[in-house]
Amino acid sequence: MSAISKYLRRQIDGFGREYVSYYCQGCKEAHSVTVFQPEGVKGPVWAWNRDVLRPTFSPSVLVRRGGAIDPTFVKEEGDPPNVCHTFITDGQVQFLGDCDHEFAGTTQPLLPFRLFGDQVSDGDEPV
Ligand SMILES: [Zn+2]
Q1: What is the pLDDT of residue 125?
Q2: Which candidate, 108, 110, 111, 125, has a CA 20 to 30 Å from the CA of 26?
Q3: Which residues have a beta carbon within 5 Å of ligand 1, which is an ion?
């Protein structure tokens, strides 16, 4: 995973899929979207405007885990939110109302990875 701006990191996996990651202040961790995959490789692909400073991804990014996918899940202190649902447009993160974290219903700027170096560090210096 290498930094392509202070906001985004990029990775290409063994199938040739290209991922872009950004830091989510709601979940306090990075989220990744696939922005390219070779023909014949299955999975969702997001449109990306290729802007590394004011990215737009579409459609929305929906992260579901914990109790959102397993009714028997017991949430513990420090677990990430169950639902994070965002539109990222021109570098602004619109957190939709179904998020179960503090930023639900708000729009926030994308934050630079470097503010959270330890949690998402991969050895690359931020750009
Ligand atoms: Zn999130």
Answers
A1: 45
A2: 125
A3: 24, 26-27, 84
Phi-psi region of 122 (alpha: psi -120 to 50; beta: other; left: phi over 0): alpha
pLDDT digits (tens, 9 = 90+) for 47-67: 999 999 999 999 999 999 998
**Strands, DSSP E only, in 1-127?**
2-3, 9-12, 18-24, 29-36, 47-48, 57-64, 83-89, 92-95, 107-109
Which pTM was predicted? 0.84
Structural domain includes residue 123: no
Residue 25 CA to residue 103 CA, distance in Å, equals 8
Asked whether the beta carbons of 30 and 120 are under 8 A apart, the reply is: yes
Q: Per the domain annotation, does 21 fall within a domain?
A: yes
116 inside domain:
no
The domain in which residue 73 lies consists of 2-109
Identify residue 73 by its one-letter amino acid code. F
Q: How far is the CA of 113 from the centre of ligand 1 (A)?
A: 14
